[in-house]
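Task: complex structure prediction.
Instruction: return structure tokens for all chains below.
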Amino acid sequence: MKWPRTDLCDLFGIEHPILLAPMSGATTPALVAAVSNAGGLGGHGCTTFSGVAFREQVAAIRSASNRPFHVNFFAHVDPPKDGQAGPAMRAMLQDLWNENGLGVLPAAEASWPTFGNELLEAVLETRPAVVSFHFGMPEASVIAAIKQAGCILLCSATTVAEAVALEAAGVDAVIAQGAEAGGHRGTFLGDVMGGTVGTMVLVPQIAWAVNIPVIAAGGIMDGRGIAAAFALGASGVQLGTAFLSCPEASVSEDQRAALLAACTRDTPTLVTKGVSGRPARGLSNRLLTSVVQLEDQAAPFPMQNALTRQLSGLGDPDLAVMWAGAGAGASRAMPASELMATLIDETQTALVGLT
Ligand SMILES: Cc1cc2nc3c(=O)[nH]c(=O)nc-3n(C[C@H](O)[C@H](O)[C@H](O)COP(=O)(O)O)c2cc1C
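Output:
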């Protein structure tokens, strides 16, 4: 396959400029290795890991692949200790807890900190080829240390201003995350609800504004979407939702079934900060439609998770948090290597068909 732009492949040392989106809780070493072995760039969501667990995950990926991959962390500002959900949000969630015999709603608290020294040491020791951040970048000394270790740096932008700031901070390529994207919006400058521009609008504007390669993300599910991203000025794509229905992904059977059933109907997804404290897109169900109405009363990210996690763990599809993008209805169940081969073939066909 001859790609229209190869700067990203050259940067990473890969054959196909298709990135597996790092998805905390959903990506696995097997999925990461399968995408990298197929010539793309596997990505692993590592934000909730301890340093020890991170080292184990990197070792597991390396035992299954000797190709480059990327590891991803959240670089959010830690919340104030006394940040709590508002009374109406707590009352509504307490009703859901009562209905399910979960007892008294606890105080909101953060179950993991932002990227700090423990994970930094583990990154510097293991030196993955590529390191990516979400919710902005860590402080300059941390960026310098990671670059000095020889890692390539990526970060998501949801606005042109963010992309320009990331280029100035020294990232090697920018991920343009459009509003269709599943999971958390990476917005880090200004209003967190402000970064809601769609992929088709965001990618060309960011491609104009920066001189580093642009990776399009959000709603890309097949080769037609990949070809479109190149037409808009991207040098590569990052797909998350499309890989959730691969057998190597760690998703509940309910989420897998919901994604695949989605092919036969419209699949409503919605963005709310009511689940975690930051805006994120997931499959619409009772939990998401309930919290979205009171989302201004959510505890700060990631503390709100402490109020919704137990509900999500009940195994009830109406109450489970199933992060997914607006393209969920185009999900296909196939092993990651087969999905990669299909995406590459489809892109070629789409590119040829346009000429
Ligand atoms: C289940 C799920 C979990 C995600 N977790 C992360 C994460 O941990 N770190 C991150 O940078 N992005 C995360 N994202 C966002 C992706 O990086 C990417 O922006 C998004 O998947 C692209 O849109 P798409 O899902 O429509 O392909 C997640 C997305 C999903 C669907």
